[in-house]
């Protein structure tokens, strides 16, 4: 059976949501957007990005609690919530409730996570 993989479409929303994330305080431009996010919606320190930005490196922290497939599913759920929030399609109260539920299960940054180890292509969704 093929190993599950996390599907990141490089929307960049997670890199625009780093406010309050302790491990990324030094990267916050002051508006919650990471100073390393390029105009092309890519990370300019991708190969050396912080651990919390790396889905694969974060998995061992929760591997005793869930399978890799379950972890990816939670991550993808987080991405969907984040995208809905950016597109103003989510009720604020439900958004908070859902995010808190996810945050109970996964490391903070991973819940509003970043580029997959296998992120395939440049961004395409930010203005959609
Ligand atoms: S992957 Fe991390 S370091 Fe890179 S742009 Fe996104 S938040 Fe910043
Ligand atoms: S990890 Fe999720 S929110 Fe971040 S760029 Fe990829 S798909 Fe978008």
Give a written overview of the molecule.
The chain is mainly α and 128 residues long. The protein has one domain (14-111). Helix content is 30%, strand content 0%. It is globular and about 40 Å long. It starts with 54 loop residues before the first helix and ends in a 17-residue tail after the last helix. Mean pLDDT is 73; it is low at 112-128. Bound molecules: iron/sulfur cluster (2 copies). The site of one iron/sulfur cluster (SF4) has 12 residues, from helix 2.
Shape: globular
Mean pLDDT: 73
Find the structural class using helix and strand composition: mainly alpha
Number of discrete domains? 1
* Rounded radius of gyration (Å): 14 Å
Figure out the total of helices: 4
The total strand number stands at 0
- Distance between the amino and carboxyl termini: 35 Å
Largest sheet: none
Bound molecules: iron/sulfur cluster
Order of helices and strands: HHHH
Query: What are the low-pLDDT stretches, counting only 5+ consecutive residues below 50?
Result: 112-128
Helix proportion: 25-40%
As a percent range, the share of strand residues is under 5%
């Amino acid at each position: 059976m093929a190993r599950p993989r996390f599907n990141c479409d490089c929307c960049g929303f997670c890199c625009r949501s780093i406010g309050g994330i302790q491990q990324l305080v030094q990267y916050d431009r002051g508006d919650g957007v990471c100073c390393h996010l390029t105009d092309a919606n890519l990370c300019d320190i991708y190969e050396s990005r912080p651990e919390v930005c790396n889905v694969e490196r974060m998995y061992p922290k929760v591997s005793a609690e869930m399978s890799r497939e379950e972890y990816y599913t939670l991550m993808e759920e987080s991405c969907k919530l984040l995208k809905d929030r950016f597109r103003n399609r989510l009720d604020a109260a439900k958004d908070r409730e859902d995010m808190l539920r996810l945050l109970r299960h996964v490391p903070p940054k991973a819940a509003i996570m970043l580029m997959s180890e296998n992120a395939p292509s440049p961004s395409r969704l930010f203005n959609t």
